[in-house]
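BUG: 3D viewer hangs when loading the predicted structure for this chain

Environment: internal workstation, default settings.
Expected: structure renders.
Actual: progress bar stalls at 90%.

Input used:
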Amino acid sequence: MTITCPHCHAENEYKTLDHINIDRNPELRAKVQDLSCFRVTCPNCGETMLAVYPCLYHDISNQFMVWLWPEEEQPPRAQFDPLAGYTLRIVDSLNSFREKINILERGLDDRTVEIMKLLLFAQLNRDLDVVELLFHELDEQTMDFRFVAVLSDGAEQYAAMPGAVYQRLQEDVKNYLYTPGGDFTRIDMAWAKDALELLHELG
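Structure tokens produced before the viewer hung:
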């Protein structure tokens, strides 16, 4: 892949990981979460940068795939067997890529988590200027869902929601919302906004 250095503008060829099978290469999980597998060093000026390119993350044990697709054109259709039981998701940024993996490898319903994020985003934005909200972890003791809010000044703030909120919302998601299988689906806060409006209409 040819990447132009944002510092010295030199163009160089780099080897990139376009497919990660985490069962075969478990050491790559940490490198995805800290983004080190997307860092490249310019041989001309020595500066390090993040390279964002299409990459498919395949977790056989947990039966999901997440496709990082930052391109403007539509990705090729998956034509995946919907009976295979896989969750197929597509994202367009590095933060959403590692967040989606973090959610799905815990066996959580990412549709429910995105609706939780939407509700929390509205609540936090009464007092803060939040530009991005990301799932961080599930507290195994309290079962609280912890999120990190990225503010407009670059600062980060943590916020939590009780696990009971997830349980209540998931019942509605399972009963009233249908996400077709067989192709990669974009489940994000824009999807959550439409889903919440639909749930309100049904309720």
